[in-house]
Amino acid sequence: MSVDVQPSHIDQIKQTNVGLIYRLIDQHGPISRIALSKKAQLAPASITKITRELIDAHLVKETEFPDLGFRGRPAIGLKVESERWQFLCIRINKSTITIALRELKDNLVVEEEIPFLMTQSQLFLNCLADKMDDFFFRHQSVIERLTAISIIINAPVDPINGIIRNLTYCSNMQDIPLKEFLHHRTGLPIFLQHSITAWTIAEFLYGAGKNCQNLIQLVIDDNVAAGVITAGQILHAGQHGVVEIGHTQIDPEGEPCYCGNIGCLETVVSIKNILAKTRYLAERCLDTLTYAIVSNKSLTIDSLCQSVIDGDSLAIEIIHDTGEHIGRIMALMVNIFNPEKILIGSPLNGVKHILYPAMQQQIAQRSLPGYSQQIDIVATQFDNTGTLPAAALIKQSLYNGELLIALMQG
Ligand SMILES: [Zn+2]
């Protein structure tokens, strides 16, 4: 390495290499140092040095494994040491929070959903801290080495500075300094991310997007948003966090959207709007199963999906149209990101046999054939609940070295 390299660059290289070695040990362990050196494309001396530091910090340990090495002796491999390393994972919802204690090897120790409703920013932080203290008190017998706190929320966030930008559903609270507040109270590294971005990271690390370097995850629920992984990295990780595909115009003559524009994709395909459209159309198709559901006031997204499964022509048409609308916008995304997979996170996955082909056909018709032909549209493995996406943020910060360096410095 030349002498004029800036110290901060050296730190960055060290962090990247430590993260890479840790990830390879986590994914392939037990693994020998020689195999590690080949996979990481780093010199054996660097491997020896980095693994020594990880062993000293109790993040990695040596183990014998059955692969017979020199003269038939068991080989010595490295694997991740996960005992007693724990993380707190928190999901903040509109009126509840879910708090979980998890271990490094992704095991869930305990998880609880607790009522949580606050209307002022300072009260919000104090109330969150009280709920965490109560949780610690109730579960003190199982808490060991707590090393970081990861929080996800369905709201715009500044992940770098750990600020919740605004909570429209909570008296429009602005700029809540969550990271600073919790770090001051606990001394621990704090991670904050939009729940959809974290969900995409979880699918990429453990779910339907595993081993896929380029993917788009589309979430169709009350809101329509997306997460993008490109060349193994999440897009916009350091910014507000979601790809605002839901606010792309699909119908210039359409309904006004709360964002200020007209006819956004969300005003057409969000679950609320699909149900509104269903009510409108059912009143005009009185001989359908869907009309029967609407007229006895049992229309929900699940009953609409059941109507599709039962073969009702109106319900099928509504879902098919929804797929076409989504496909038109996704075609543009496909041309930009050339993904291997499109993951769909939605209650509409129950009728994917109608939804996905309608999307696929629009994508094929409207994007570069070389790109669109190889795309798989698949359902996400997880849904937008629970604390696994928060755990994925911890895993990501180990793999990029950021949290490892903090833990190695004690
Ligand atoms: Zn909009």
UniProtKB/TrEMBL annotation:
<keyword id="KW-0805">Transcription regulation</keyword>
<dbReference type="InterPro" id="IPR000600">
    <property type="entry name" value="ROK"/>
</dbReference>
<dbReference type="Pfam" id="PF00480">
    <property type="entry name" value="ROK"/>
</dbReference>
<dbReference type="InterPro" id="IPR036388">
    <property type="entry name" value="WH-like_DNA-bd_sf"/>
</dbReference>
<dbReference type="GO" id="GO:0003677">
    <property type="term" value="F:DNA binding"/>
</dbReference>
<dbReference type="InterPro" id="IPR036390">
    <property type="entry name" value="WH_DNA-bd_sf"/>
</dbReference>
<keyword id="KW-0804">Transcription</keyword>
<comment type="similarity">
    <text>Belongs to the ROK (NagC/XylR) family.</text>
</comment>
<dbReference type="GO" id="GO:0006351">
    <property type="term" value="P:DNA-templated transcription"/>
</dbReference>
<dbReference type="GO" id="GO:0006355">
    <property type="term" value="P:regulation of DNA-templated transcription"/>
</dbReference>
<protein>
    <submittedName>
        <fullName>Transcriptional regulator</fullName>
    </submittedName>
</protein>
<dbReference type="InterPro" id="IPR043129">
    <property type="entry name" value="ATPase_NBD"/>
</dbReference>
<keyword id="KW-0119">Carbohydrate metabolism</keyword>
<keyword id="KW-0238">DNA-binding</keyword>
